User: Which sequence fits this backbone?
């Protein structure tokens, strides 16, 4: 079973939502505003991938002023963004995929841009929203943790020689504004802690999936958490009153899928 950082983040926040989203593939409604942001983000990632491959990008910029502003901001910062410890001619790989077998699962990542130098390596990730005021959210997010963990496990670099940098392009959409970034270094201590947390979480998932095959749903997030306030599945989990969990026997019947046949979910 393939797991991405999106799977791990959802498992951590609410196992039942993981069940409904990925195992039962119920889907959740997306607002027009959310869909527009997703589309813009996808277009920008494609734009930078084409630039990295040496393909023409001007045709993509002419019809989209916002993409043009983001890209001009990237161009202005490109020497800094692509540099790695003063090393000459590092290897750069755009939309780079890596997979690691771990605890019976296939952990999968896609790096927006991976730069490999002789002594250091860094992961670059493009964000089209503003830089968060508190870095802790991204530091503890499974995207950061899994991306660095897999790079350490699949290369010969020491953990201390790895880093991940988020670049936030929303600020660059304003005339004269510089792009903002957040650099997250790695270490042996963080690597060991991530490995321990992965073992615990995947061990829980293995247990939950075995119980799910026997008709037992995955655990619910307590209703008191804010996660439920913005979740489209709250009524399904707790009923229209939002007070008590809906009894499992009252849930709509469904055929339990063969877990080995569940399609890989886009990252």
Assistant:
């Amino acid at each position: 079973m393939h797991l991405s950082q999106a799977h791990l983040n959802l498992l951590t926040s609410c196992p039942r939502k993981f069940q409904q989203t990925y195992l039962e593939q119920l889907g959740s409604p997306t607002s027009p505003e959310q869909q527009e942001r997703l589309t813009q983000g996808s277009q920008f990632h494609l734009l930078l991938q084409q630039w990295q491959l040496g393909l023409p990008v001007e045709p993509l910029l002419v019809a989209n002023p916002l993409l043009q502003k983001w890209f001009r901001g990237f161009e202005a910062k490109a020497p800094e963004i692509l540099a790695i410890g003063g090393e000459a001619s590092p290897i750069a790989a755009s939309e780079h995929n890596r997979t690691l077998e771990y605890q019976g699962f296939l952990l999968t990542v896609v790096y927006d841009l991976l730069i490999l130098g002789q002594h250091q390596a860094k992961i670059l990730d493009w964000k089209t929203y503003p830089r968060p005021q508190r870095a802790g959210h991204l530091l503890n997010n499974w995207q950061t943790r899994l991306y660095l963990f897999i790079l350490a496990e699949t290369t010969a670099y020491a953990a201390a020689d790895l880093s991940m940098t988020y670049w936030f392009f929303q600020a660059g959409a304003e005339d004269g504004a510089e792009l903002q970034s957040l650099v997250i270094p790695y270490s042996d201590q963080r690597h060991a802690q991530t490995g321990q947390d992965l073992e615990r979480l995947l061990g829980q998932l293995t247990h939950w999936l075995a119980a799910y095959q026997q008709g037992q749903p995955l655990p619910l997030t307590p209703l008191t958490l804010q996660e439920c306030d913005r979740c489209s599945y709250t009524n399904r989990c707790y009923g229209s009153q939002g007070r008590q969990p809906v009894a499992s026997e009252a849930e709509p019947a469904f055929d339990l899928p063969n877990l080995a046949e569940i399609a890989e979910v886009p990252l």
